[in-house]
Amino acid sequence: MTKDFQHAAVARALLALLLLIAAWPTAAGDADSVTAILITARDQVADEDFGGSIVLVMNNLGPAPIGIIINRPTPVPVAKLFPGNKRLASLRDRVYFGGPVEIDSVWFLFRANKVPKQAVQAFDGICISGSRELLLQLLGRAKPMDGLRIFMGHAGWAPGQLEAEIANGDWRAERAHADAVFSGKSEHPWPATEQGPKDTT
User: Fold this and answer.
1) Residue 74: band (very low, low, confident or very high) from pLDDT cuts 50, 70, 90
2) Among 100, 107, 139, 143, which has the highest number of CB atoms less than 10 A from its own CB?
3) What CATH number did the domain enclosing 140 receive?
4) Is residue 124 part of a domain?
5) Would 146 be classed as within a structural domain?
6) Which residues is 148 bridged to in the sheet?
7) Per-residue exposure over 88-121, b if at least 16 CB sit within 10 Å of its own CB, e if not
8) What global pTM score does this model have?
9) How many domains does the chain have?
10) Does residue 196 sit within a domain?
11) Alpha-carbon span 184 to 141, nearest angstrom
């Protein structure tokens, strides 16, 4: 992947986010809780979108598993999502590549003792949402990115596909835990580069 192509890919993704930010999705489904696992890509995963990825997979946001790649930071600062919000300008945190599906959509994971009405519980103490209103509320806190991570796009599988991939040894599965989402290392930037952007969270 050439540097020009990398810059173009990031620019297209950012442009799509800015153009569609007013129409972000609301939390899918009415489920009170979501069963979640973490899957880590094995070496034999050929798709560059998933190579080296750790994915939080949730099983009832749709008719088949939906996931968020949690360790692929992009070069895009969170502040770029709201260019008119001067108080966010100093944030060094990055938007993460959540997956190749609907890359112009924005989702976020955050810590919460109580599930807000605009969100769905991903697993104990962690919620997922696509609500612009809720995201603005979280970013309005004294520590905007405390227990918050923002993603563009998501991952998805056809019914039975992920189970088959795990059985084939493409993924290692484990129980989901908050440390992996908010404290894990992000060593696989998006787009893939030899010297990609460093995680600053």
Assistant:
1) very high
2) 107
3) 3.40.1740.10
4) yes
5) yes
6) 110
7) beebebbbbbbbbebbbbbbbbbebeebbebbbb
8) 0.77
9) 1
10) no
11) 23
Asked if residue 193 is part of any domain, the answer here is no
Please name the residue that has the structure tokens 């930071």.
Answer: 73
Whose tokens are 């070496």? That residue is 43
- 3-class DSSP assignment, residue 168: coil
Instruction: Please tell me the distance from the alpha carbon of residue 18 to that of residue 9, in angstroms, as a whole number.
Output: 14
Task: State the average pLDDT over residues 151-180.
Answer: 88
**Residue 4 pLDDT > 60, yes or no?**
no
Among residues 155, 138, 2, which one has the least CA distance to residue 78?
A: 138
Assigned token pair, 167: 């059985």
- Separation of alpha carbons 23 and 70, rounded Å: 23
Residue matched to tokens 């598993």? 65
Counted residue by residue, the chain has a size of: 201
Closest CA to 98 of 89, 88, 108, 90: 108
| DSSP bridge pairs for 40 | 54, 172
